[in-house]
């Protein structure tokens, strides 16, 4: 796996790259870096040249400027891909990364050949007013959006990382090095990104996702990640999203309520979905 930096107008962005073949770009979830895709990159590198660029404000990339919009973030990401010589790519964006991907794909026609738009049900609600209402009653999101008290923000970060570290499922599988590695990576990513994460969430909160979804002109697979809690509190959104995009397909991955959004321990399953779409 090659690691390096690419220069953009917002600063240097960190990337990892592996494999050979058609170019496939994976955009990480908000607040996460390419670490979250280590197993997925390994699964896909036999079939694609896989590139993961850390979004500004995450991993080892340059900070995210205050007041940045999703259109700007998508533009900086497109600059990074151009700097790496990638002119036409298949694209996978998960959760916060799906918004970066959609903003980039609409504003840089021809760059994205095919797009897998993935996220939990609450993350892919197409109607902004409905999505805003969900965000307003979600304490974890509100605590990030309203992070104006440095002490409260600092304490919240400690509680979040402690919850990862002492998670019951992890403690039951401490003998598994891969499980420990996933938690360590998540904590590192949180520490690297927590100061800029409020800026990203404010950009996501103000983003008119529905307008960009309607403007997507490439083949799209909507991958909805569901849990029983999401079904009760939000309802499934994948069909509504797919209906906005001409010819879009829909697949669903069901998970228990305790499941993390990042799919890090389902790399083989996700890789099979991506191969089927990008090579089909």
UniProtKB/TrEMBL annotation:
One of its GO terms (molecular function) is hydrolase activity. It comes from the Bacteria. Residues 25-272 form the AB hydrolase-1 domain. InterPro entries: AB_hydrolase_1, AB_hydrolase_fold. Keywords: Hydrolase. This is Alpha/beta hydrolase. It comes from Ruixingdingia sedimenti.
